[in-house]
């Protein structure tokens, strides 16, 4: 079954701290993996996209990693800011990008 | 680039009426548009996939006669919630995917439409 799991379900950290969000996926044949940030009441915004040949990609303070062997990905946020408070969604695509599965998301709260 | 808009951003309607939501790709042509529904504190749920010029493909459990989707052009798709009921109140989000090889192929999401049925 094609599915994506994320952990933790929610996370609270203090401003300035780092954090890492996890994503495990089971899709076949794997095409790519994306991380999105969704602010409350807004549509998701793409942070990173990685194919099986890429194992890390950065976008500012966001760094995503991908281990295609273990089918795991992580999103590391450095020096968190209050504006990082949002839901972070992992999406795995398969069948040459034609199909995709959304993870349930991790809700991050950054407190001052 | 790759901007997707939705209109309206929020709408309140009475039970039994129909509501139309528009999704536009502003600076690229989208052969495929997706419609999602999101309930509070939950992730996006894919409702249907809409390909320009053909009938939409609905996910299991989504009533095609209730959620009418039209994708008449490469830049516009509409979702009509017919005979809306309070349980249809939700956040509806569309995304658009460009033509392979000519532009952005990944999904770009609209800002969402908040529907409240009273």
General description of the model:
The complex is a heterodimer of chains A (112) and B (118). Chain A is an all-beta fold and 112 residues long. In chain A, 0% of the residues lie in helices and 62% in strands. Chain A is built from no helices and 11 strands. Chain A is globular and about 45 Å long. The N and C termini of chain A lie far apart (41 Å). In chain A, 34% of the residues are buried. The mean pLDDT of chain A is 94. Chain B has strands at residues 4-7, 10-13, 19-25, 30-38, 45-51, 57-58, 67-73, 76-81, 90-98, 107-109, 113-117.
Strand content of chain B: over 45%
Unreliable runs of chain A, pLDDT <50, ≥5 residues? none
Distance between the termini of chain B: 37 Å
Structural class determined from secondary elements of chain A: mainly beta
Extract low-pLDDT stretches of chain B. Answer: none
Oligomer: heterodimer
Which structural category fits the helices and strands of chain B? mainly beta
Number of helices of chain A: 0
Overall mean pLDDT score of chain B? 91
Q: Characterize the overall form of chain B.
A: globular
If you compute it from the alpha carbons, what radius of gyration of chain A comes out, rounded to the nearest whole angstrom? 13 Å
Largest interface: A-B, 18 and 19 residues
Radius of gyration of chain B from the CA trace?
Answer: 14 Å
Distance between the termini of chain A: 41 Å
Secondary-structure element order of chain B, as H and E?
A: EEEEEEEEEEE
| Outline type of chain A | globular
Q: Helices and strands of chain A, in N-to-C order? A: EEEEEEEEEEE
Care to count the β-strands of chain A? Answer: 11
